[in-house]
Structure formats: C-alpha cells, structure tokens
Amino acid sequence: MPNLVEICLKKNIKLTNHRKIIAQIISESTDHPDVEELYRKAYFMNPKIGIATVYRAVKMFEDLGLIARHDFLGKGKSRYEVLEDDHHDHLIDITNNQVHEFFNAELENLKTKIAHEMGFELIGHKLELYCKPLKK
Amino acid sequence: MPNLVEICLKKNIKLTNHRKIIAQIISESTDHPDVEELYRKAYFMNPKIGIATVYRAVKMFEDLGLIARHDFLGKGKSRYEVLEDDHHDHLIDITNNQVHEFFNAELENLKTKIAHEMGFELIGHKLELYCKPLKK
DNA sequence: CTACATGCAAAAGATTTGCTTTGCG
DNA sequence: CGCAAAGCAAATCTTTTGCATGTAG
Questions:
Q1: How far is B118 from chain A (nearest CA, A)?
Q2: B50 CB-near residues (< 8 Å, 6+ apart)
Q3: Coil vs helix vs strand at B116
C-alpha cells in the first residue's frame, strides 16, 4: 500500500499540514473517493480545511502524476486513487457501483502493441469494464 | 456509415423535425462532436432549435442505446458518436487531440475473458489509449 | 383536445478563481 | 518581511429543469 505522504517526502515535495492530511486520507482510501468524501474526512480531521483546498490539493497531486482521476460511468464527478508504479485497470460492478481493480499483463502488452501498430507510442491508457456478477 | 435517422425508422422511433436534424448531424460527424458543436450546426440548419433540445435529444439517443457518450481526457465535456453493432475503441493523439478508432478482436476476447475470470459478465467497456506519434 | 416537444431562462452541480488573510520560515 | 497556502465567496462551465407556449395527430 503506497503512502502519498511518503512518496512526497521521497520526491522532495513539500507538504503543508492541510495537504498532508488530504494526502493521508487519499492513501488510506480503498474506494476511489470523490472530492466531497475527501472534504468530509479532511473536515473531520481539521474543520479549518476548506473545500477549495481539497480541490487545489488533488489537482496538484494529479499534475505531479501522483494520483489518478477517474469518472466511472461518466457521472461527472471525479474520483481519485494513488498511482503506484504498476498499472491496473478497473472493473465496475454496475449492480452496486463497486470498483474492482485488476492487472493483466497480456492486456498491457496488447495495448502497447496496438498503439505501435497504429504508429503511436503509448503514453497513458484507461480501461473500464462495466459488468454484472455471473449467475451460478 | 450508419445513419441514425434510418436506425430510428427501423426501430419505430418517431423523430420530430428537430430531432431528425440533430440525428442527421451526429450521423454525418466523424469527429465525436460535443453538444456545443452539434448545437452550432443544428442552429445553422434551423435557428429555432435551442440548446436544451440538443441536450434532450442526445440524452434520448443515449438512453435508447443508439449513441455513445465519451469524455476523452476527462475534460468534463461530453462528446458523441453513433453506436454501430460492432464495437471499437479509441486512440487519442495527445499532441493534437485527434481521436482514432480501432478494433481488435484479440482485445475484445481478452476483456470478456478477464471479466469471466473475475466472476462477472461483461456488459459494457471503455478503452482509451492516450498516445503520441512514433518518431521515425 | 391531448400529449408530447420545445424555447427560454433559471437552477443545479462540480470545479475554478479572485482577493484577502494567514502562517511559516 | 516575504511568499506560498488557504478561506471564502463569487464566478465559470456544463448540463438539467420548470414553466409557459407550440405543434402534430
């Protein structure tokens, strides 16, 4: 489990107290929280934190490439997760909106191969599988 | 090239004049237009068309499963394309934001297989490759 | 006449920004 | 003191909605 605070320390990214709290909350989350949820938890830790600070912090982390922003199902709301060195994709259970992460090497190779065949170098990628549970 | 107007006729979906214009514009587009672009072109065809009608029309077509909505690069703006029976994915050239479509059977099979292995039935999926051109 | 579509403007929801204040070196 | 960060509220941007009007069958 990657800790955003440690990552920032390692990269010499200075964190203010407010940003440290926000980074910690993102790190501890396993459910791809949105800004509202981050704000609620940050507010609980320190009621002096405003929502604009949360927005500015996630934008900063995103620009630094430390977290990823998602908008599962195109609901128009950004949800965040710490970016680790490895890459993973997302499977969304549409019956309960739960997000499952997975990694598949074959898939990663195929992505790169397809891009190459089309004359491109793969920089980033996003794959979301929308599913419902198999009936037994 | 699929024509949304014809698809609607075939499915007994009644189109008003305004919706017919909007459907036609979507069909003729190859560049995944956003609402603003659709509205501009529709307005050119008939200045009595309001932007709310465009929003209502694309929502209707989307709910009917006739068009797909994308938000490439998470810019917060919806862009549309006619949904054909076949499925394709998107490769976005980040140097000029151009969208290239592609289809890869191996990839499609792999998606289904991964979902199954995780205990799910694949309903929908979205894959976007963000790339830059290979240097020669 | 009835039901649905539409225009317009207002509302809503997410995010950004301007400006002033705060806080830490 | 000096500068970045943060709070707050206003602004912005996309999309939705309420309501009165228009239109087709």
A1: 9
A2: none
A3: helix
